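Let us practice reading a record.
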Amino acid sequence: MMLGGSYSVARYFWLNQEETERRTPPPKIPLVQGVRLHATNFPIHLPSQGRVQARALTSISPEVAGRIISIESIFKEGGFFQPGQKLLTLDDADYLNGVVKAKAIIAQLKAKLELEKIERAAFTNAVAVAEANLEQANLALKLEILERSGYSNAVAVAQANFAQSDAALKLELARRDAAIANLKRLGSLEKASPLAKYEPQVAEAMANTNAKRANLDKALEDLSKRPAQMEANLEAKIKVTNVKLTEARENLKRPAQLEADLLAQIRIAESEAKQAERNAKRTVIIAPKYHGRITEKRVDIGQVVNAGTVLATAIATDYAEVRLPISNHRLAYLNVPEQMVSTNNTEALKHQAPVSYPAVKLTAQIGADSHTWQGKIDRAESRYDSASQQLFLIAQVPEPYGHQPPLRAGLFVRADITGNTLNNVFILPRHTVRRGNEVALAV
């Protein structure tokens, strides 16, 4: 009963309620927030990211083999070093012995060279003596030939003179015989004078013939006194002297070759001595020529290492580098440091613009804190990445381990690169830009 009564009352009020007055809503007026714009200069900041890396990574290796006999305190993982600082030392005894041995060989070769020079001087003197003897023998032979020729000529002249005088004597004898026969026929031989009988003419011709005969005998005697074998002996002596001279010259050639060989051996020994000295110095292993830090140590004292064995790896700590990719369209807002150092176009070098190095701020999250480091864009890589068509810029941060916290190699960082400054531009909030890059202006 009670439920039925309640339902009836509710139905009555629902059907007999007053109708609410309908009102027309006021027109909607759009809300507009205006911003007064002012021209200003706006520096562009280009975002990027990358991983910190050392500007140099070096494998420290010895140039010689040996046993490690000492290690410096800085030779440990994380140890800092100065340029060229000693890191460890190898045993140099064998190399020092090599130096002593090479110097001893040099001294021995030089002593032998001096002896060869003395022998060479002796052979030189022997050649000079042989040449003098040969010249003397040749002169003696020429003199003998001349003298023998002179004596032979004298004999020939004497023979000719004797023959002439003998012919004259025979002529006078014939004239005498003819005159006597004629006088006998005339019967006046007894009364004839000696001149008519040709007695003085015959006597003179006979005396002349005897004189010429004496001259011929003297020439023949002088010629006979010359040794028949003298010329042959002189020729034989010349042959012997020539043989001796040839032998002396050959002996002179041999020391000359020996001297050249010894000089070559001395140069080789000196080179080996210098190499041994260099090897002895190379037993001291020094750090690379930069400020750096040991990142990995692979050997310890007492180990025997070979030439080329990697003893440790080190990185440079004078500055760190970060490869930062930049898309091609953003490069228009950045002056990338580029400087030609050599070109055939000298005019291009003259008109080359001064190089600027954009600033860069690196940020990294270490633990709960965010840290920043300041650096610069030092250069760009030589070519675009073929896959992403991005150009990698190289940022440099000086003294990365001089900061707190240090900028360690391998750390991932975000970069904010300061690009070009846009002059006389208007800055708008991003939400005021409509679709299609449109902006509503009130004038």
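A brief commentary: The first helix runs from residue 2 to 15.
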